[in-house]
Design a protein that fits this description.
Layout (H helix, E strand, L loop, with lengths): L30 E6 L1 H6 L4 H9 L6 E4 L18 H15 L3 E5 L2 H4 L6 H15 L6 E4 L12 H25 L2 E3 L2 H9 L16 H16 L14 H21 L4 H4 L4 H4 L9 H19 L2
Parallel strand pairs: 1-2, 1-3, 3-4, 4-5
Helix pairs in contact: 2-8, 5-6, 9-12
Length: 310
């Protein structure tokens, strides 16, 4: 597996616009929050993006918290439970405040792209609002464009192609937002679209045209890292076969993600903290029992990272 020649954070970007963000490294004690839709949420099952980021900062103990939410949009629509979209947006910000991130990785756009041009202006406006609120919490923010759909694996290839056309336009809009706010940006769509669009890749990157396979996530992780590491002569490659110590590190990351998921999104939340909490709300105290378990798994990850870098 390729090793870093320069210790650098993947959250680096230069050249996206005249006001591009200055490079900044992941620091010891950082907390990185993933905020976005299904793409980020599902990575917690395989952990390749987090693995790549962990290995890119070999001398720093960095914690990661996956706040991705399936079907989510920039206005927090999927997080609203039985309330309004505005309540969903408030939940999104509350989720962030609960983990107190020093770095935020954001990826939105897939869901909005299905509505095409009709929703593009609202997407950009909503994204701008979100960034204004995120910047009140930290200036260290990396924007990632939505990955492409894979027509060859989709039950509706024509729809996948149409959505990809919209994501192309979205990606440019997100790039411009990154420049406007001097934030990092990674174009995930363009390099992956070359793989899924040309028909030359023998092994699919998705299992249904939309959701990435483990191999798809390995490639996405590489793009996220290498796309921002070019100017630092640094790279981390998780698409190659992992060593035994690297695989143990990945497994520890996945185990930690599952523990945090149960802390962050407990089952039957309507009964625990919602409108039926009068029935079983006393059980909500048990949610916090996951916190020491997550912290313990973080410590294990730090040790396994050191072992993987030897």
């Amino acid at each position: 597996m390729t090793r870093l020649t320069v210790i650098a954070c993947v959250l680096i970007f230069t050249g996206i616009a005249a006001s591009a963000a200055e490079p900044f490294p992941l620091r010891d004690g950082d907390v990185v929050a993933f905020v976005g839709n299904t793409f980020l949420e599902r990575d917690q099952r395989d952990g390749y993006i987090e693995l790549a980021l962990t290995l890119s900062a070999p001398n720093a103990d960095v914690s990661f918290r996956n706040l991705g939410w399936s079907g989510d949009t920039v206005d927090g629509r999927a997080r609203r439970y039985f309330g309004s979209t505005e309540e969903g947006y408030k939940h999104l910000l509350d989720h962030l405040d609960a983990v107190k991130p020093t770095v935020i990785v954001v990826c939105y756009g897939t869901n909005e792209a299905f509505d095409g041009e009709a929703r593009r202006a609202g997407f950009i406006e909503g994204y701008s609002r979100l960034l204004e609120d995120l910047r009140k919490r930290t200036e260290r923010i990396l924007l990632v464009s939505a990955p492409p759909l894979e027509p060859g694996s989709s039950p509706a290839p024509a729809v996948a192609k149409r959505v990809n056309q919209e994501i192309t336009k979205q990606s440019e809009a997100v790039r411009e937002l990154a420049g406007k706010y001097s934030l990092g940006f990674v174009d995930l769509f363009t390099p992956m679209h070359k793989m899924v669009g040309g028909g030359n890749d023998t092994e699919p990157l998705t299992d249904n045209g939309l959701h990435l396979t483990p191999r798809g996530y390995r490639i996405a992780a590489n793009e996220i890292v290498e796309g921002v590491a070019e100017s630092t002569n640094a790279s981390t490659d998780v698409a190659e076969a992992l060593s035994e110590s690297e695989e143990r590190l990945r497994q520890a990351i996945v185990e930690k993600n599952m523990l945090f998921f149960h802390r962050h999104r407990p089952e039957n939340e309507t009964y625990l903290r919602g409108f039926r909490k009068h029935e079983q709300g006393n059980n909500a105290a048990e949610i916090y029992a996951f916190e020491p378990l997550v912290a313990e798994k973080d410590r294990e990850i730090f040790e396994r990272r050191k072992a993987a870098m030897k």
